[in-house]
Amino acid sequence: MIKDAKEGVIIQIYVQPNAKKTEIEGVDEWRKRLKVKVKAPPVEGRANKEVVKFFSKLLGTEVVLLRGETSREKDLLVKGLTAEEVKEKLKS
Fold it and tell me: Which of 16, 18, 42, 79 could make an S-S bridge to 8, C-beta 3.0–4.6 Å?
């Protein structure tokens, strides 16, 4: 779900678009991914942009979509933080 990589930290998420608000709902145990609700619709990459913006603001660093542009299952690359730092920021 959250693991160190050469360039930073990879966060594996499952996205639910068209939600009332953008938030982290918890952990999807079956998929072993962080479940994230996103306000934006899955049209023209809007949900992807909102996910990247949400995590960038939440973690205070650059976040890039690595994989899953057209899927609900996505991998994000968080630059400049360790896995422990990401876990701490997600808890608060």
Answer: 79
Structure tokens at 22: 């953008």
In the chain the first and final C-alpha atoms are separated, in Å, by 17
Query: Measured between alpha carbons, how far is 70 from 57 in angstroms, rounded to an integer?
Result: 23
Whether the model clears a pTM of 0.85, i.e. scores above it, the answer is: yes
Which tens digit of pLDDT belongs to each residue from 38-73? 999 999 999 999 999 999 999 999 999 999 999 999
Helix and strand numbers, DSSP H then E, in the chain = 2, 6
- For every residue of 16-77, DSSP letters joined together read E-S-SS-EEEEEETTTTEEEEE-SS-SSTTHHHHHHHHHHHHHHTS-EEEEE-TTSSEEEEE
